[in-house]
Amino acid sequence: MKLLLFIFVIIGALVVITSGIWVAITLITSNRHS
Amino acid sequence: MALSVAVVLAYVALLTFVAVRARAAREFEEFSLAGRALPLALVFGSLAATYVGPAFSIGFVGRGFESGLLFLGIGLAYSIQNILVGLFVAPRLRHLKGCHTLGEAIGQKYDQRCQIVAGIISVGLCAGFAAVMARAGGNVLHDVFRLPRWSSVFIVVAVTALYTTFGGLRASVITDAFQFSSFAILLPTTLLFMLAFHLKDGAATFATQASTATRNGLSVTSPVEIIGLLAAFLLGETLIPPYANRALASRTTNISRNGFILAGLFSVFWFMVMISLGITARSIIPADTGEDFVLLDLVKSTMPAFGYALLLVVLVSVVMSSLDSLLNAGAVAFTQDILKPFVKLPDTSSLNVGRAATIIIALVAAAGAVAVPSIIGGLLICYTIWAPAILPTLIIGLWVKRPRPLAGILSMGVGTVVAIMLWLILRLIFKYVYPSDVEIPPLIIIPAIGAALLAYALGHWIERYKSGA
After folding, report:
1. Distance between CA B19 and CA B175 in Å, rounded?
2. In 3-state terms, what secondary structure has residue B37?
3. Residue A11: closest C-alpha in chain B
4. Is B201 on the interface with A (CB under 8 A)?
5. If you average pLDDT over residues B240-250, what whole number do you get?
6. Which of A2, A8, A19 lies at the smallest CB-CB distance from B184?
7. Which H or E element spans position B442?
8. Which residues on adjacent β-strands are paired with residue B76?
9. DSSP per residue, B148-209
10. By the CB < 8 Å criterion, does B178 face chain A?
């Protein structure tokens, strides 16, 4: 149970980082198009 | 000190470069709705950057430190709200033709008087929220440069107003996306760093601290307060003008819906990261650390100087991304909802008025920042007025076939007045009659929405009776 909570937190952090990278990539590519 | 100043200056230079690349708006449609061409990632990133202000970052870390997972549960009400708005409201809003603002949506469904009232409430709320953000930004710069508070507030507001005035919504959204990427990458990385290198016994210590803090939180928060907080998080920030503008500026109805749903899902993970930072801090920094200083003290005591400087950049991002959206939304609401019903304006004049309004709202926010009691306190007051003032009229109007204008006006007027009166009365009671530190706004939101709904029903019934329909 304790480990599960810990793993859940780490997955949450990775999801947030991935979202940041996705938006950053879109920002770079959409700026290039315009 | 020198490193912190250098990093913050480098960040501001980079932000200016991003804003300049966004180009100046050439017509009002571009200034107010970014040409209705926003793709999903930018709608999502901009929405998330706007709602992640000081309260959802510094505030949530502090709440995690003091009451563990309790605020993760309360924050879920906010996530659910975003998802529900995405599923049911945003697509209907985007579907309306030629709509620039929430007030205009209300005007299309009711009449022009309702649009003006909604516009006045929108501008007032945007200025209030912006004052809170200006104060938070001023606090950060004051900590870095040791400047007087008034000049710190002025610098934050001036830089933000500069790119928002020229670039409008497009500049706001693009800089939001840049700022979102900064804090969405840096803050979770800080958490992973803490968990890997500073938390002894990893999972076991984390679970023990989470359980102790949550029990502590539940013991000091009454069920009535929890219900009030759930209501405030569920309704308080629903479709405030900057969110509505992003729903209207999406490229398609589907993007509008999915942007809100993704932003809602993201908030679950975001709250988890913030609360976890607070829980982790319990075994690292002193237990008597003030709620608003947990994040700063945690980073100061565990990261190298460069890490602290990066955190300051993150905090500047968090504040500016919310402030720019509020300035733009307030300016567009002023032009479209308050001025245009009285004066016919050609496109160039609308654009100039929008720009001038951005600067005026920025000045009002900078002046008002001094009067803000506290960051969380100021935000809660704005939420408490917004939900009863606008939500019943907006939601019912989007769903009912023939909404009655009198119902809309009565609901908006009564909702606003009841929320303000209840706040004043309870403030006096908890100050002089039963002195207490209880948070007042969450106690007001449900009765004020009840009053607004009753007023709506009354207005609907009177107009129906008059018309004999």
Report:
1. 6
2. coil
3. B269
4. no
5. 90
6. A19
7. helix B441-467
8. none
9. -HHHHHHHHHHHHHHHHHHHHHHHHHHHHHHHHHHHHHHHHHHHHHHHHHT-TTHHHHHHHH
10. yes
> Taking a C-beta distance cutoff of 8 angstroms, is the pair B319, B133 a contact?
yes
Instruction: Classify each residue of B207-243 as buried b or exposed e, where b means 16 or more C-beta atoms within 10 Å of its C-beta.
Output: bebbeebbeebbeebeeeebebbbbbbbbbbbbbbbb
C-alpha closest to that of B398 among B50, B180, B108, B173: B108
Q: Which of B175, B185, B270 to mutate against chain A (most A CBs within 10 Å)?
A: B185
| pLDDT single digits (tens) B394-428 | 999 998 888 999 999 999 999 999 999 999 999 89
Q: With CA atoms as reference, report the closest residue to B380 among B229, B262, B265.
A: B229
| Per-residue pLDDT tens digits for B261-301 | 999 999 999 999 999 999 999 989 999 888 878 988 898 88
The CA distance from B456 to B410, in Å, is 6
Interface touch B269/A22, C-beta < 8 Å: no
Q: How far apart are CA B367 and CA B154, in angstroms?
A: 9
Q: Which CATH class is domain B2-372?
A: mainly alpha
Q: Looking at chain A from residue 1 to 34, which residues have their Cβ under 8 Å from any Cβ of chain B?
A: 1-3, 5-6, 8-10, 12-17, 19-24, 26-27, 30-31, 34
Q: What is the ipTM of this complex?
A: 0.93
pLDDT computed for residue B469 by the predictor: 58
Delimit the domains of chain B by residue range: 2-372, 375-469
* Cα separation, B386 vs B388, whole angstroms: 6
Cβ-based burial of B34 (10 A; exposed 0-12, middle 13-18, buried ≥19): buried
CA distance B71 to B50: 20
Q: Which of B51-55, B119-123, B167-171, B398-402 has the highest average model confidence (pLDDT)?
A: B119-123
Indicate yes or no: CB of A16 within 8 angstroms of CB of B188. Answer: yes
Residues 6+ apart with CB under 8 A from B230: B74, B77
